[in-house]
Design a protein that fits this description.
The chain is α/β, with parallel strands linked by helices and 291 residues long. The chain has a single domain, classed as Rossmann fold. The chain has 9 helices and 11 strands. It has a 7-stranded mixed sheet with strand order 7-6-5-8-9-11-10, sandwiched between helices. It has a two-stranded antiparallel sheet with strand order 1-2. A two-stranded antiparallel sheet has the order 3-4. Helix 3 links the parallel strand 5 and strand 6. The longest helix is centred in the C-terminal third of the chain and has 19 residues.
Length: 291
């Protein structure tokens, strides 16, 4: 069901106009904006970077392997899901992957920044719907079979509330997948420039998801084989100013990109066999909302 962001009443229907209070969202760039006051927020991400990011994502070493892992986890743990909602969808790189792998899946995306949504709509096509929202006031109630937030909640001050909003958005019995950067000792200038609020330990994220109402299905770490390069970049190389020496920069020479992709593919083989690494660059938690 939809949930009015103005009066909080729930209702069914394709229209975003609330039948109870008459609230209707503004429209920017062709997308309903449920949080227009945040269109110029700009404190969690540079909205102007979406054009450049969309060009980097397809060929980078990171997004391809990460999205394949998301696709595998989604099919493995939520094989019967018919609807999926992603908060912080950006340019739609994850939704494109899921839509390609699950032809009958209805996909929906939302972001605080409307600038990324045209890229997402172009990538995924008419199968998807997109809206601009505040992650702390989502306009749904028990609407989707599964929800996801991938490298998103570390940008949000009140991450506990964001997780609770996702819990309310997913149907009872439905699932959630959350990815965050792991290991607090890796905090560096790179995180500051990315405007992260925190990095997570495995216990911390699991506790916050339980507090939101979720039951943990599996918690896994990935990026273990590239972790040494991240440690070198974050702890040993210069970390000053706007330009950093980063061995895991998205825009790498072709040979480095191929090498890093190969390491991330190898990294996933034990994960798919049930191995849970003790350390790695990122943390994926798979959870369910109990019936």
């Amino acid at each position: 069901m939809k949930r009015c962001v103005a009066c909080t009443r729930t209702y069914d229907g394709a229209d975003w106009t609330c039948p109870a209070c008459g609230h209707a969202p503004e429209v920017h760039a062709g997308f309903p904006c449920l949080a227009p006051h945040l269109l110029k927020a700009g404190d969690a991400f540079d909205a102007r970077s979406f054009d450049g990011l969309a060009k980097l994502e397809e060929g980078s070493f990171w997004f391809g392997p990460r999205n394949r892992l998301i696709g595998w986890a989604f099919s493995r743990y939520f094989p019967d899901a018919k609807t999926f909602f992603e908060i912080g969808c950006g340019t739609g790189i994850v939704l494109k992957q899921l839509a390609a792998e699950r032809p009958n899946l209805s996909v929906h995306g939302a972001d605080i920044f409307v600038e990324g949504l045209p890229h997402a709509a172009e990538r995924v096509g008419q199968r998807a719907s997109f809206i601009q929202v505040d992650a702390l006031n989502l306009p749904f109630d028990r609407e989707f079979d599964a929800v996801g937030a991938f490298d998103v909640i570390e940008h949000i001050d009140d991450d506990a509330r964001a997780l609770k909003e996702l819990w309310r958005t997913v149907k009872p019995g439905g699932g959630a997948m959350i990815i965050v950067p792991r290991h607090k000792f890796l905090w560096s200038r790179v995180d500051e420039l990315a405007q992260h609020k925190r990095r997570y330990s495995g216990r911390e994220l699991a506790e916050r998801m339980r507090e939101a109402g979720f039951e943990i299905v599996r918690q896994l770490t990935f990026g273990m084989l590239t972790l040494p390069l991240q440690v070198i970049s974050r702890r040993l190389l210069p970390q000053k100013g706007e330009r950093l020496v980063d061995l895991l920069e998205l825009n790498q020479p072709a040979w480095q990109t191929a090498l890093l992709k190969a390491l991330l593919w190898l990294d996933q083989i034990p994960i798919r066999m049930g191995v849970n690494y003790p350390c790695g660059a990122s943390l994926l938690v798979i959870a369910r909302r109990p019936h």
